């Protein structure tokens, strides 16, 4: 069997294990962008800028018409707990 075929079978087995709640996949609890923003005392425009995204895209998260991806959810969790850490990191970037 080709490498592609083997990779495909392995991927399907991993997906099946994940669906059964088995395997190495980690599932994080959903994050609520509006709750994070209010906790950080930011406007939607400020939050969108902090996330590095458009205001309309951020609003779609809060309205529930767009899903928060894994990396964005992680950044939201960091903002929820340490909003100033993200600000510092963005200010120190070249």
What would you say this structure looks like, in words?
It is a single chain. 11% of the residues are buried. The chain is elongated. With 94 residues, it is an all-alpha fold. Helix 2 (33-39) packs parallel to helix 5, helix 3 packs across helix 4 (55-63) and helix 5 (70-81) crosses helix 6 (83-92). It is built from 6 helices and no strands. Helices cover 67% and strands 0% of the residues.
This entry's quaternary arrangement is single chain
Number of strands: 0
- The number of helical elements comes to 6
Q: For the report, how would you describe the main beta sheet?
A: none
| Structural class determined from secondary elements | mainly alpha
Series of H and E elements = HHHHHH
In helices, the fraction of residues equals 55-70%
> End-to-end span in angstroms?
48 Å
Radius of gyration: 18 Å
Fraction of residues in β-strands: under 5%
Q: What is the average of the pLDDT values?
A: 88
Q: Which regions are unreliable across 5 or more consecutive residues at pLDDT < 50?
A: none
* Overall outline: elongated
Attribute tags:
94 residues, mainly alpha, 6 helices, 0% strand
List the helices and strands and how they pair.
Blueprint: H1 3-19, H2 33-39, H3 44-51, H4 55-63, H5 70-81, H6 83-92
């Amino acid at each position: 069997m080709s490498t592609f075929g083997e990779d495909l079978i392995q991927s399907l087995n991993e997906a099946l294990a994940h669906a059964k709640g088995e395997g190495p996949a980690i599932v994080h609890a959903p994050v609520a962008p509006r709750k994070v923003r209010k906790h950080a005392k930011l406007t939607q425009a400020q939050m969108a800028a902090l996330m590095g995204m458009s205001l309309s895209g951020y609003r779609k998260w809060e309205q529930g018409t767009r899903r928060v991806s894994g990396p964005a959810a992680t950044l939201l969790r960091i903002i929820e707990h340490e909003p100033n850490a993200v600000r510092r990191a963005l200010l120190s970037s070249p």
